[in-house]
Write a structure and sequence with these properties.
UDP-n-acetylglucosamine1-carboxyvinyl-transferase, Chain; 2 domains; four-stranded mixed sheet; about 25% strand
Length: about 425
C-alpha cells in the first residue's frame, strides 16, 4: 500500500516482442520541475506547454496549490497563476515525496526572502545532501537555522556575490539562480552544472525578463532585476525518456522513430548506443534508431555531469549490456546507491559482478528470462522493464510507482510500439 492507502500497481510483461514504430516524446521532467518552481518569481501568470503528466510534476503542482497558486491544465497546456501565494512554507508531507521540491526554496527566497522546508525525499539512490544549496543561500546573505529537521531561511535582501560550487550540483545551481534573479547586483556561479535542463530553465527566466548569461557553461552570471513578467514557454523534450525508449527498441531488435529531439542533448547517449552497434540518424526534428543484429559491448561506461554520460541512463544501458557480445564495466560517479537494480537483473539471468561499491562488470549472456522483480527506484525500475521486454517468458515488476514518477503513460507508449505489457493493481 502507498502512503495514501492506495493499492500498489505492477507491470506484467510477456517478453520477446520486437518494439518498433514512432513515438511522440513528452517534455523533460528535470526541466519542467525547476521551471514550475520558477513561476513563483513572476507573481502573475505563466503558460507552459509540453509539461509531462507524471507524478513528480503533479506533486510540484500540489505544493504550489498549498502555498496559494492556482493551476489549470488543458491537454498539453498548463496555466499557473502565483499572484496569491501567501506562505513561504513548503508542506512537509509533499517535500518528502520528491527531492526536486527543494528547488522551490530558491524561488521563495528570491521572491519573498523567506523559506521554510524539511529535507527533501525522492528515490533512495544516495545521500544527495543539500549542503551546497544552503552554502549558496548563505553567500547571498540568507540567514539559515536548522531545528528538528526543518530549515528556516530568512533575509532582508539578496545581495549579489561570487559563489564557487565544490561540485557541479544541478540542484544547487538551479536554486542559486532562482534566489538571485530578483536580487541586488550581480551573482556569479563558477563550476556550475551544465545540464540541458538548467539551460532550459535559464531560457525560461530570460524570457520573463531575467538577465542571465552563461547557460550551458560552468560560468553563470545573474544580474538582478526588479521584476519578472508573464510569459508563455515550451519545455524541452525529455532526453532520458528518449534514451530509455531507444534502448527498448535496441534491446528487442526493432526500429524507432522519435518525433522531437535536441541533438546536442542526445549525443552523450547516442555515442554509447552507436558503440553498441545501433544505427542512429537525426532527422529534421527527431531521430531514427535501427537496432543491431547483435549488441556489442561498450567497454567502459562512466557516469559524469553533462556533457558526460548521464547517471539517469546508467541502469538502462546496463540492461542493454547484459545481452551484449562481450564485457562492459560500469563506473557510477554521481550517486553511491545506483546499482540497486543489479540484484534484480541477476534474478533475470544477467551476469553482473560487483568490483567495488560503485564499479561493476557486466558479462553479456545469450538471453534473459522472465522473473518476479521489484523496482528499486525510478531509472532502475525502467531498466527492469527493458529487461522484461527482451526476456524469454513472463515478468512481473512491482513497486512501479517509482517508474511513474518520471515517465508519462509508460506502458501505453511501449504498447504502441508492440510490447505485451499490462498494468494491474495488487489484490
Amino acid at each position: 500500500m502507498t502512503e495514501k492507502g492506495e493499492k500498489m500497481s505492477k507491470f506484467i510483461i510477456q517478453g520477446g516482442k520486437k518494439l518498433e514504430g514512432e513515438i511522440k516524446i513528452s517534455g523533460s521532467k528535470n526541466a519542467a520541475l525547476p521551471i514550475i518552481a520558477a513561476t513563483v518569481l513572476n507573481a502573475g501568470t505563466t503558460t507552459l506547454y509540453n509539461v509531462p503528466d507524471i507524478q513528480d510534476v503533479n506533486t510540484m503542482f500540489e505544493i504550489l496549490k498549498k502555498i496559494g497558486a492556482t493551476i489549470k491544465r488543458k491537454n498539453n497546456k498548463i496555466i499557473i497563476n502565483t499572484n496569491k501565494v501567501h506562505t513561504y512554507e513548503i508542506p512537509d508531507d509533499l517535500m518528502r515525496q520528491m527531492r526536486s521540491s527543494v528547488i522551490l526554496a530558491g524561488a521563495l527566497i528570491g521572491k519573498y526572502h523567506k523559506a521554510k522546508f524539511s529535507c527533501p525525499g525522492g528515490c533512495d539512490i544516495g545521500s544527495r545532501p543539500i549542503d551546497l544549496h544552503l552554502k549558496g543561500f548563505e553567500k547571498l546573505g540568507v540567514d539559515i537555522k536548522e531545528e528538528y529537521g526543518e530549515i528556516y531561511c530568512n533575509t532582508e535582501k539578496i545581495v549579489g556575490t561570487q559563489i564557487h560550487l565544490d561540485l557541479p550540483s544541478v540542484g544547487a545551481t538551479e536554486n542559486i539562480i532562482l534566489a538571485s534573479c530578483l536580487g541586488e547586483g550581480t551573482t556569479v556561479i563558477t563550476n556550475a552544472a551544465r545540464e540541458p535542463e538548467i539551460e532550459d530553465m535559464i531560457k525560461y527566466l530570460n524570457k520573463m525578463g531575467a538577465k542571465i548569461n552563461g547557460a550551458g557553461t560552468s560560468y553563470i552570471e545573474i544580474e538582478g532585476v526588479n521584476r519578472l513578467n508573464e510569459v508563455e514557454y515550451e519545455v524541452i523534450p525529455d532526453r532520458i525518456a528518449i534514451g530509455t525508449y531507444m534502448i527498448a527498441s535496441a534491446i528487442t531488435g526493432g526500429t524507432l522513430e522519435v518525433d522531437k529531439v535536441v541533438q546536442d542533448h542526445m549525443e552523450p547517449i547516442c555515442d554509447k548506443l552507436r558503440i553498441a552497434g545501433c544505427d542512429i540518424k537525426y532527422t529534421e526534428n527527431g531521430l531514427i534508431l535501427v537496432a543491431p543484429k547483435k549488441i556489442k559491448a561498450v567497454d567502459l561506461v562512466k557516469t559524469c555531469p553533462h556533457p558526460g554520460f548521464p547517471t539517469d541512463m546508467q541502469s538502462q544501458l546496463m540492461t542493454l549490456m547484459t545481452l551484449s557480445d562481450g564485457v562492459s564495466v560500469f563506473h557510477e560517479t554521481i550517486f553511491e546507491n545506483r546499482f540497486m537494480h543489479c540484484a534484480e537483473l541477476i534474478r533475470m539471468g544477467a551476469n553482473i559482478k560487483y568490483i567495488t561499491e560503485n564499479i561493476c562488470m557486466v558479462n553479456g549472456v545469450e538471453k534473459l528470462h522472465g522473473a518476479r522483480v521489484k523496482s528499486p527506484d525510478l531509472r532502475g525500475g525502467a531498466s527492469l522493464v527493458l529487461a522484461a521486454l527482451a526476456a524469454d517468458g513472463k515478468s512481473e515488476i512491482s513497486d512501479i510507482y517509482h517508474i511513474e514518477r518520471g515517465y508519462e503513460n509508460f506502458e501505453n507508449v511501449l504498447r504502441s510500439l508492440g510490447a505485451d505489457i499490462i498494468k494491474l493493481k495488487d489484490e
